[in-house]
Each structure stands twice: as structure tokens, then as C-alpha cells.
């Protein structure tokens, strides 16, 4: 069951949006253009996420004996890359 709003608890600083409110709404770019012109410089528009590489890798699930995995991990950071290089050479 939907809870009814209590008018005495309504948030005056953040009122509920109605269809009429949405119809009057304007884009932030139109209301505050100075914020958006500063953000359009090339230095601020960096792509999100991890950079794309020319040779993407595929994620797999591989079951290894615990001793084997422990030996690879003991070689330090980058053990996954070294393991992949070793497998590539073996093929």
C-alpha cells in the first residue's frame, strides 16, 4: 500500500515534481551556461573508464592447484601478465 504524504512534512526546498513542474523545466545548460562552457574544454572532457588497448583480453575461469597459484602470486605484482606470457610462449 502506498504511503500518503503528510503536508506538514513536505520539503519546501525540494518539492514534489508534478507534470506541470516537468513541463516548465529547462535544461541546466540553458539556465547555467557558464558551468557548461567551462566544462567543454578538451582537458575536462576525458573519456570515462579504463583506456582501450589495441589487444583486448578475454576473461575466463581457470581452475588451478592452490600450490601453482601460490607460486605465481609469490612472484609479485604482474603475475597474471607473466602467466599469460608464459602460456603464449608455450603455445
List the helices and strands and how they pair.
Elements: H1 19-24, H2 28-31, H3 33-39, H4 66-73, H5 79-90
Short description:
The chain is mostly helical.
General description of the model:
Helix content is 41%, strand content 0%. It has 91 residues and is an all-alpha fold. The longest helix is centred in the last third of the chain and has 12 residues, at 79-90.
Task: Output the keywords.
mainly alpha, 91 residues
Rg (CA only): 27 Å
Q: Quick one: biggest sheet?
A: none
The overall pLDDT, averaged over residues, is 83
What sequence of helices (H) and strands (E) makes up the elements?
HHHHH
Strand content: under 5%
Could you estimate the helical fraction of the residues in percent? 40-55%
Structural class comes to mainly alpha
Strand element count: 0
N-to-C span: 63 Å
Amino acid at each position: 500500500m502506498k504511503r500518503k504524504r503528510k503536508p506538514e512534512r513536505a520539503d519546501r526546498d525540494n518539492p514534489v515534481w508534478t507534470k506541470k513542474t516537468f513541463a516548465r523545466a529547462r535544461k541546466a545548460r540553458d539556465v547555467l551556461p557558464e558551468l557548461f562552457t567551462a566544462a567543454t574544454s578538451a582537458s575536462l572532457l576525458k573519456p570515462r573508464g579504463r583506456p582501450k588497448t589495441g589487444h583486448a583480453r578475454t576473461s575466463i575461469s581457470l581452475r588451478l592447484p592452490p600450490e601453482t597459484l601460490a607460486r605465481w602470486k609469490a612472484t609479485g605484482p604482474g603475475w597474471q601478465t607473466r602467466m599469460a606470457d608464459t602460456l603464449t610462449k608455450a603455445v
